[in-house]
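Worked example

This section walks through a single chain of length 329. The input is the sequence exactly as stored; nothing has been trimmed or padded.
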Amino acid sequence: MEVLDTLYNEIIGFLGISQAWEIIKSGDYSSFRTFEGVQSLIFPIIPLLVLLEFVLGLVYKKPQTKVYKVNFLIYVFNRFVGRFIAIAMVTLCIGWFEPYALINTGPTWYWFIFAYIVWEFGHFIYHYLGHKVRLFWCLHATHHVPENMNLSVTYAHFFLEAPYADTIRTTVCILLGMEPAMLFLIMFIDGTYGAFIHVGENMIKDARFGFLNKIMLTPSHHRVHHARNPLYMDTNFCNLLNIWDRVFGTYQEEQTDTKPEYGITRKVNSGNFLDVYFGEIIALGKDVWKAPGVKNKLAYIFMPPGWSHTGEHKTSKIVRANYMANRSG
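Given that input, the structure is written out below as tokens.
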């Protein structure tokens, strides 16, 4: 019975319906009008869409079962290994940096807009470093390995990525005056939308969303971000507002003549949990071990993926620059 209870609680936890179920059992439906009540109705949306997307894949005979299988294993592994670390890091960063906030903000609409722009800046920094520093890429690469795009990809993360990401984002937000309550609200909104932008073609074929494609980040933009095509490499680091990608020159729209090819440039057995989860860490370890001298060993850790002590660099910057030069020529 204990095993069944654990399984039941895990299923309820995955579906995100526990909070709503408690409100329903209490009979106090007015609770749905509170912020917590609204949250309880939104939490199940992404898990239910994952299930719907999987069913549609079976209907369309494009099941992508390998991706779902490995991403499910990653979800289960992370539930046991890294469940509370990210929450702890957010709490610590708030306590450490709140006394040093440069400005004071309040719970108004204009401070909310300011706060969201600041959050996106923190997200851009974390995400950019996750692609440009090989040590951080080892934490982030698990999310990019899947060779198909679908909602299950949102669960594919190395367990240490969330603490690293939330440390950077929380520190930036708190130092720039964001109130903790506003921070948690934005984290909730951004987390929900950040899951949705992984929606696959089985559910939404053309994910540009018309005119919205120009003013916000759509699933189409995020498909570009997950693509390994030279044109698309290391672009679209933002999550909802693409303002910082435009500011720093990393904005890229999906081109009709260049279909995104998902995955990473290293040859991966994408159906193997160990290769998907630990493959980049193992590859880095091998490069560090073989590199001559301490300077080169450190360079492999902190230089971009593709850097080589031989000078035969294959970083995304070089690959993309060569592609753009050939394309324009």
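What to look for: The mean pLDDT is 86.
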